[in-house]
Amino acid sequence: MENENIVTFDNVTIDYVMKKYNLRAVTDFTLNIRRGGITAFVGESGSGKTTAVSALLQAISSPGKITQGKVVFHGDEDVDVSELKGEELRRFRWEQVSMVFQASQSTLNPLMTIYDQFYETAFYHGAVASKEAFAERLDELFDMVKLDARRVLKAYPHQMSGGMKQRVMIAFALLLRPSLVILDEPTTALDVITQKYIFNQLIEINRKLNTTFLLLTHDIGIVAKAADYVAVMYAGSIMEYADVYTLFGEKLHPYTRGLINSTPSLIRDAGEIKPIPGAPPDIRSLPEGCPFHPRCEFCTERCKTQKPKLIRRGEHHWIACHLYGQDGGEHENS
Amino acid sequence: MKILEIEKLNMVFSSRGLNGTERVHVLRDIDLDIEEGEIMALVGESGCGKTTLGKIVTGLLDATSGSVRFEGNDIVRCGKKEKKEYRKSVQFIQQDSYAALNPVKTVYSSMFAPVRANNRKMPKAEIDRMIADYLEMVGLTPASLFLGKYPHQLSGGQRQRVLIARVLSLKPRLIVADEPISMIDVSLRLSILQLLSELNKKLDLTIVYITHDLSTVRYVVGEGRMAVMYLGEIVEFGKVKEVIGNPVHPYTQALISSVSIPDPVVERSKPAIQLRSMEVPDIRRRCDGCGFSDRCLYADSECSGWKLKNTNTREHAVKCKNIAAVPRYDVFGERYGKENHS
Ligand SMILES: Nc1ncnc2c1ncn2[C@@H]1O[C@H](COP(=O)(O)OP(=O)(O)O)[C@@H](O)[C@H]1O
Ligand SMILES: Nc1ncnc2c1ncn2[C@@H]1O[C@H](COP(=O)(O)OP(=O)(O)O)[C@@H](O)[C@H]1O
Ligand code: SF4
Ligand SMILES: [Mg+2]
Ligand SMILES: [Mg+2]
Question: How many domains would you assign to chain A?
Fold first, then answer.
C-alpha cells in the first residue's frame, strides 16, 4: 500500500557553521508530510522554513549542514535524501520534487525565450518524446496556470509582468510531473488581486493533479486560504502541527494563538486583536527551555528550563508546549 | 478646519531614455482635503502613486500642476517664511527605517540634533530629558535602555519607533507615514499601528497613513476616512467603515474581496473575484477614460471615453460612471442591495 506520507523529517537539526559561532536554524525537526493536499509551514521571517525544506533537496545554502537526523522521501521506495548523488540527485530534483523559490522570477534566464527554457529542461531530463507531444504538454501546463501558451512561449522574461512570471515558474515546477512541489512564498511582492488569483489556481491544480504542495509563508491569511495541514514554526522549532480548521479553531499553542490574534483582519475590531509582546527571537542566543517563553503569557518555571517536546494530541495534531500534557509523553511520531 | 487642501493635482515625471523623453503621468486630477487632527488612510497597490502623493503633501516633491494649500496658503506660490514654516510643520516617515537612520550614530545622537535645533537656548540636561520623553512617548521604555544603541542593535519595530520619535521632536502638525510596517516582523506590526493611532489622539496630530495592506487600515484610522487609489487616481473616498463594508467602485470591490481573512471558514466561503482581465497594467499603459475599464465587468462602451468625475452617493465619492449598474458586496463577498440590470 502506498505510504500515506510523502516525506518524513526525522529529528532534523541544521546548523549554519560560521567561523565565530554556530547558528542553529532548525532544531529537532520531526514531521510527516501527508501525501496530496497542501501542507503549509508558517512562521515569521527567519524561523527556518526555507532551511528546513532545503534539506529535502540537498539545497541548504552554504555553510549550512544537517548535523542530526535525516529526511526520507517515500517514493516507489524510501530514499534518504542526503544519500542521493550525481545523476540520481539530478533526476530527483524536478522529477520527484520541484521548488518554486522565493523571488524565483529572477531565476528565469533573461536571454532565452520561455519556450527554450522549458524545452532545455525537459530535453535534459529525457521528457521530450516528440515535438508534438511536447507542444501538447506545454498547452496543458499553460492552461492550468491560465496563460496563453502561444503568446507566453515566444516571450522573454522582461516582457512579462511579475504575476505572469510567477505563473510561468509554477508551470515550470509542474513540467516533469513531480509528486511534490515546494512553493516558497510564491506570491510575496505581488498585488493582492494577483495573489488571490494565483492561489485559486494553485488550489485547483493541487486538487486536479493530486500532487503534494508544500507551501512556505509568513502570511497567516494565505494559510487560512490555501492550506490543508499546517506546521507553525518558531525559532527553528515546530510549535504546533494540525489540520487548518483545528489550528484556527482551537488556537491551542500560545504562539499559534498570538500569531492568529495579532493578524490584522478586515472583519475584526481593534479590541479583538492584540500584538504578541516582546520581540522575535535572536536565534544566535536562544533562551533555555521553550524558545517562545520570554513572550508567552502562560510561561511557568518549567518553560524556562525544559524544552517541550512535540507530542501527539490527536490524529493529525501535534503540539510542543508544557501546557498540554508533557508528563507521560515520550516523543513519538506515527 | 482644513489643514491641507489639494485641488486638481497632477504629477508627470519625465525621464530621458533611449527612445527620447518618456513622460509618465503618475497622479491625475487628485482632489483631497485633510481636516486638522484627522487620521486618514491612503490605500492602493504598489506603483499607484501613493509615495509620490505623500512626498508632494510633505513638500519633498513639487507637483506638475494643481494646487496644494497648507492652512490656506498655497505652498508653491507662498513666500519664503511661509514655506519654511510649512516645511517644518509637515514630516514624512519613510518605510525603510534602516536606510533613514545613520548606522554609526546612536539613538541619542540621532535625536540630539533635531531636538537641539528646535530648542536653541535649552541647557543640555533639559535636552537630554526631552529626548528621553520623546523615546518613551513612542514606547521605547525605559529610554535609558535605548539611548546608547546603534540602529543595527534594534529590531525593525524599535527602529521605526526611533524614526517616529525623531519626527515628533520637530513638533510637526501633519505627518505622512509611508508603509511604516512593511519592513518589520509580522508580530511587531500591530503595535506600531496602534502607536500611530495613539499619537493622533494624544497629540492631536494630523496623520496620513499610506499602505498597500487594506486589513491594517481600521486599526490605525478607526472611524476616520480613507482614499483608495488605482493607477494614479483616487477612485473611492469615504469613511473606512463604508468603504470597506460597502465598497462601491468595482476596483475597490475586487481589492477587498482579494484580501485574505485569517479564518479558514470565512475565507473559503468567499466567492472568487470576477474580472475581465487579471493583468495589472503598468501606470505607463493605463487605458483611456476610466483606468479600470479594461478589467471591469461592468464597463460599457462609454467607460473608456469617459472624462472621470466623482459620483457621490451619500457616503462615498466614487469615480465610476456606472454605479447604478454595479451590484454591491459586503466584506464576506455576499451580494446585497442593488442588482445588476444588464
Ligand atoms: N546561508 C546562510 N548562512 C547563514 N545563516 C543563514 C543562511 N541562510 C539562512 N540563515 C539563517 O538561518 C535562519 C533561518 O533562515 P530561513 O530558513 O531563511 O528562515 P525563513 O525561511 O523562515 O525566513 C535565519 O536566522 C537566517 O538568518
Ligand atoms: N522620480 C521618478 N521618475 C519617474 N517615475 C517615477 C518617479 N517616482 C515614481 N515614479 C513612477 O511613478 C509610479 C508611482 O510610484 P510611487 O508613487 O512610488 O507608487 P507607490 O508608492 O504607490 O508604490 C511608479 O510607476 C513609479 O515607477
Ligand atoms: S467607470 Fe466603468 S469601467 Fe470604470 S469602474 Fe465604473 S463601470 Fe467599471
Ligand atoms: Mg524563507
Ligand atoms: Mg510607495
Answer: 1
